[in-house]
User: Fold these one by one.
Assistant:
Number 1:
Amino acid sequence: MHIKDLDTPVPVIDLDRVERNIDKLQSYLDKHGIKSRPHIKTHKLPILAYKQLEAGAVGITCQKLSEATVMAAVGIKDILITYNLIGKKKVEPLAQLARQVTLSIAIDNELALKTIAEAAKLAEKTIKLLIEFESGNLRVGVQTPEEALELAQQIKQQPFLSFEGLMTYPCGAEAGRFIAEAKKLFDKAGMPINTVSAGGTPNMYRVHEVAGVTELRAGTYIYNDRNIVGSGAASFDDCALHVHATVISRPTVDRAVIDAGSKTLSSDQINPSYGQGHGYILDYPEAVIRKLNEEHGIIDLAACKDKPKLGEVLRIIPNHVCVVTNLHDEVVVHRNGVIEGTWPVWARGKTR
Ligand SMILES: Cc1ncc(COP(=O)(O)O)c(C=O)c1O
């Protein structure tokens, strides 16, 4: 079967592009002696996690404990969770995970430390901890190297925890300054920093410029999307996931409506300096997907010379591909348009 014959709306993945994206980043990281620990948040598919490991990744990154549980169940053995895990309900599943895999977790506070210490004790397994620091994202992370050292010293006092290093997201000059200061402070305190883990895709080919980084966690690079193209880190030809959608109405000359709304494309915005609307329509680059209802995508065709016809199938590059993956039970995979399979997105919808 050919992808032209698919029912819509549907996310369609080009496996040749996926493999090319994996190999390109892995070669760059190998060249610079930086480890790859891809974030599976983009694809949420065990089979693609295995492709990344086969290409040379040292392990994977998950954002949530429940995502990590899915990946452990298929035999993946080295997992980093980059999320503060807090609360009694986390202890038992975390202990179970620690029995199955080599587990690292990033934290920025003592409550997460306490939860993980309890789980490690219950499992009688060592869990490695990284301390997350903030480097421009204004999200989570300790604010100073002194805070990081204080937390690292608390880790050392716990029997089944080991201090592994530092972690940040994303990774730029600010991260470099923090790492340099932290190194001096930790050296003085006799606490070696084994790992400095940084993310993500927009800066991936510049990570070697940030002294001290030992590992990169890129997620989006496997598919890429409109925001990544806008950032300059990839081109539209590197985008491996297209959403196929059918024009279901042409109410006016300048309006088309497709069967893909926010349930399919997500409501994630494009950075305004990169473009407008809710996705890039490959065959009609001047068209703007102005508005999304749950099941309707409303397209403004005023700037298009050629306009899509009723019933035509459009190929759309989403603004943010990770959230699109999370919306779909299955993805269709192909090479040169010939369908190779339909894969269930096993780690989708895992919020805990
Ligand atoms: C903690 C963390 N690491 C890595 C990544 C991967 O970033 P990207 O998708 O830009 O590669 C993300 C993305 O949200 C993240 O939150």
Number 2:
Amino acid sequence: MRILLVYATTEGQTRKVARAAADRLASDGHSVEMIAAADVLTGDLPDFDAAVVAGSVHLGRFQKDLEAFARKAAPELNCCPTLFLSISLSAAGDDPDDWTGLQDILDRFVADTVFQPGRVSHVAGAFRFTEYDFFRSWAMRWIAAQKGVKVDPHTDLELTDWGALDTAVAEWASAAAAKV
Ligand SMILES: Cc1cc2nc3c(=O)[nH]c(=O)nc-3n(C[C@H](O)[C@H](O)[C@H](O)COP(=O)(O)O)c2cc1C
């Protein structure tokens, strides 16, 4: 399949997740075009058979560029197999309120953009202290403390389960290939 992979990132973890997904898809023989949402907003959409859309949650919403891309491309996206990768710290835990919150954030994204993902995978993100400013660093230390996660404010902490991501992407692609 020709797979379009569009992502938006604030501190870089979603780019890393998108790269891992792209590598998995390419090694399974697909042709993957990986583009940042901001870069695909201005030009024409490339042709594709299936698409992966990836973004991260900040203060209860996905990146504005990702929203704008999904709104613009919804007619094409809704006609083919799609996988939405939602990256967050809530997905690293099992707090039911956090998971309800993630569902609400996703529902709002779908309502706002009219893009209806065929499949959704929630992916645990990372604390990227090396990317935060002073205030963000304090806020994220506070959140880590609330969640009982031990952090070192000078070191990034990756919570992404790369094996689970790999499985989710491979399974989606094989189901998608059977449809196109
Ligand atoms: C300022 C800020 C706000 C965040 N808000 C949320 C949130 O509302 N819910 C959540 O689950 N994670 C939240 N996160 C965690 C991010 O989703 C997580 O760090 C993710 O790995 C960021 O991905 P990125 O590096 O691609 O931007 C927040 C992180 C930051 C720095």
Number 3:
Amino acid sequence: MKILVTGGTGFIGSHTVVELISAGHEVEILDNLSNSKESVLDAISKLTGVSPKFYKADILDKARLTEIFSGTKYDVVIHFAGLKAVAESVEQPLKYYENNVEGTINLLNAMLNTGVDNIIFSSSATVYGDPGVTAYTEDLPTGQNITSPYGKTKYMIEEILKDIAMSKPEFSATILRYFNPVGAHPSGFIGEDPNGRPNNLMPIIMKVAQGEYPELSIYGDDYPTSDGTCIRDYIHVVDLAKGHLAALQHIKPGISVYNLGSGKGTSVLEMVAAFEKASGKKLPYKIVGRRTGDLPEMHAIPEKAFRELGWKTELTIDDAMRDTINYLRALA
Ligand SMILES: NC(=O)c1ccc[n+]([C@@H]2O[C@H](COP(=O)([O-])OP(=O)(O)OC[C@H]3O[C@@H](n4cnc5c(N)ncnc54)[C@H](O)[C@@H]3O)[C@@H](O)[C@H]2O)c1
């Protein structure tokens, strides 16, 4: 299939591009490089032997989108482009609504104007807000008690996709709700290398390991969990990338929603221990106060993806730690 991948030089996008090319798909990448580097394209070429066509473009630039979509007839768009820093979205909500929601509307207009009916969208477990349970199935209500503008942009985009599907029977949107992506490609060529100050646990652990930050701050050890720290469902980015390939093989008209997670919860202290085991080094950390909006515990029930897409995770937290450390060595 001929696929446009927006955000294809980013963390999850780049790993997905590698899987798509390896499976024989023809891929083009659109990214404004606001949170990624052009050198990722060389890494993709080294890994796959293919140099995908690259548009350095912004989804806020309607004229550029029209130009790109009028040049090629895509079968599918896989849409990763978006801003994802939760704390920044609280400080600068309009930046997030503009980039994520308006950007997606522009993209959808460009698609529909050129007869492209299929989209796979990067959503997030944050759309569930605070559902009052720890194990998440796709049929839980969404949109209630979402604490950040970032999470709300994902919810709003899901609603927009549902409305388009109501108006246009041939439209197909596959909504993939990711849990917590971690790890790197086992080659060490690509991984998570965000510009600016990261918010998520793994990139912060990486900065501590690199000596850039003195220690990891753990937000609260008095939650009602096994060791008092928050529990999340971490998924290796290569497994996540393969989830997109599985979704691509099962595109059908209408809205399809899948949780992509491992189904297993891991606490922050367990993540620290796994990193220490893989690196053979102590990871300095301190316990600080709880962070507003953090839920004690959540994990995916990923059974729908297994049943309908034949997809499940194969890699472990230990694999993710090994590959992250390998990637850090390659970066150094
Ligand atoms: N990493 C996570 O924890 C996580 C969890 C759930 C959902 N997601 C979603 O998955 C997607 C990919 O996440 P990621 O971790 O790879 O993030 P990332 O920041 O590494 O990748 C996003 C890419 O989009 C590009 N981009 C941003 N705004 C753009 C714009 N206006 N025009 C063109 N390109 C633009 C960035 O330069 C970057 O390369 C995002 O939509 C994110 O919200 C991520």
Number 4:
Amino acid sequence: MCDIGYFISEPCGGLCCANAYCNEEDNKCYCNKGYYGVPTVNCYKPCKDLCGTNSYCGKHNTCYCNDGFYGNPYFGCYPACHGLCKTNAKCDIPTQKCVCNEGFFGNPYKICEKPGIIQFEKPEYSVIENVGVVVIKVIRTGSTYAGVHVTWTSHDVTAKQGSDYIGSQGKIYFGTGVTSVEIIIPITNDMMYEKIETFSLSLTFIEPGAVFGQLITTVVSIEDNDAPCGGPCPQYSKCDPPSQKCVCIKGYIKTYYGGCELPCKGLCCANAYCDARDNRCKCNPGYWGIGTVKCFKPCNDACGSYALCGKDNKCYCEQGYYGNPYKGCYCEYKES
Ligand SMILES: [Ca+2]
Ligand SMILES: [Ca+2]
């Protein structure tokens, strides 16, 4: 029972609403911890305690994602692209998809790299004509992520497109992960002797995703394997490069049948010569004999003055002269 003059009074006059309490010290209503509002009217949990992870209750008692977080704040907010963007990649906020940074290519969820470099493997190639093809390698270093088309063009130097090799232009494709692609150029085997012939190949256009390196031109030499003059020249002849015909070597002459042989077949004996007019051996002037057998000086050149060599190869004094024809003849007869 209360003393006289007193009556039961409820704390704070019983005015505190639900989720509020009366503070005995000042006899005032306050919202319970974690509740907001006017404690005599309505105490409420912000946003009805519905905000998910990484979100907060803001204006109009509405949930909002924390700064740098995205998604539905009532179901929980997540960092940009769920934090899945890897090296050299960033999150595209509107789509929440990872993309490679500008100038980089690759899989943004794994790695993005600088564009691959495409160029010829070697500055020059050599091929033997009868091999049939030359295989020219184009290589890619660095990122191999992008699928890239590359075009090439050929240029004649001394070889001619269409007759010495086939292919004026073409296109090659580097698929993802591919580091090397071959350009195969057919070489014409013309079976004709010729000098080394050359042509060049240039890379001309490349799709984005890769860039050209330094080596975008290569020179191809076609080495001839055809024999000079179409094969070995006959005996005593050699190939004349300008005309590509076999010609007789020095000192030899052409025969009626196309071969080469020594003048007079080389049968002339000493002190004889081959007469080009009839290809026969003749004794040199002042010599007697048969050009292919023996040529000799008449009487061995032993006749003295006013003496002549006879058909029997003996010396005789000229008519009207007397004496020893080997020592010299005299006009008058003298007892020797
Ligand atoms: Ca050729
Ligand atoms: Ca040839």
